[in-house]
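Here is the promised in-class demo. Please do not try to memorize the tokens; focus on the logic of going from shape to residues.
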């Protein structure tokens, strides 16, 4: 019997490392959004458009990838289905001379669900419950939101389901979910507080290259938001 995506994710476990792919993975974080600029907790909100700074960050990211990969590279395109990720990808595709319409989306690539905190100003939530930023720049899960092991289960399921993708690929994701995915891809140690592996954070507009389980940062963005 073929295992379900949930079973495959469970097989990875909180410390599990997915099979090493033959191709390279470019895991990018979208540009700054109106929520980031306003210091609101964005979470998995679907429609929070890029600011001018966010478009500039996507532009820089596209130029960096063009310098690295050249025009029309053989690259499988994946994205979170959120507007901010797809906007970022559209700018990148112009630089790479690739067709944005060829991109695939998957809801498992979205950002952490912040529950009832989602969309609220950081300052207002902090006034009610205390700090929401944790050491290392991670977000404290909301009482009715998503936990880090739950994020690891969904991104781990995606990694298992796409392990046979041929060649290189680009994934446009978010601050927290990309860190959990990179933690799984590189075998990072389990955070004792969060309960799963989490890679170091990078600014908006950054991209991490994972090849044979090892991560490098070919482009560091200029965004400010820690998550």
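The designed amino acids, position by position:
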């Amino acid at each position: 019997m073929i295992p379900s995506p949930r079973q495959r994710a469970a097989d990875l476990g909180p410390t599990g490392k997915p099979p090493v792919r033959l191709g390279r993975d470019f895991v990018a974080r979208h540009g700054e959004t109106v929520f980031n600029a306003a210091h609101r907790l964005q979470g998995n909100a679907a429609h929070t458009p890029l600011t001018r700074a966010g478009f500039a960050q996507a532009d820089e990211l596209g130029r960096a990838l063009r310098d690295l990969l050249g025009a029309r590279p053989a690259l499988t395109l994946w994205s979170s289905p959120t507007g901010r990720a797809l906007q970022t990808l559209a700018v990148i595709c112009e630089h790479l001379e690739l067709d944005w319409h060829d991109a695939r989306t998957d809801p498992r690539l979205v950002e952490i669900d912040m529950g009832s905190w989602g969309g609220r100003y950081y300052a207002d939530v902090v006034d009610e419950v205390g700090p929401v930023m944790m050491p290392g720049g991670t977000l404290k899960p909301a009482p009715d939101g998503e936990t880090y092991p739950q994020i690891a289960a969904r991104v781990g399921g995606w990694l298992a389901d796409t392990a046979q993708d041929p060649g290189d690929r680009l994934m446009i994701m978010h601050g927290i979910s990309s860190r959990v995915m990179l933690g799984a891809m590189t075998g990072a140690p389990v955070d004792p507080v969060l309960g799963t592996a989490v890679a170091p954070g990078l600014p908006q507009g950054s991209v991490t290259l994972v090849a044979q389980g090892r991560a490098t940062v070919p482009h560091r963005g200029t965004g400010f938001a820690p998550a």
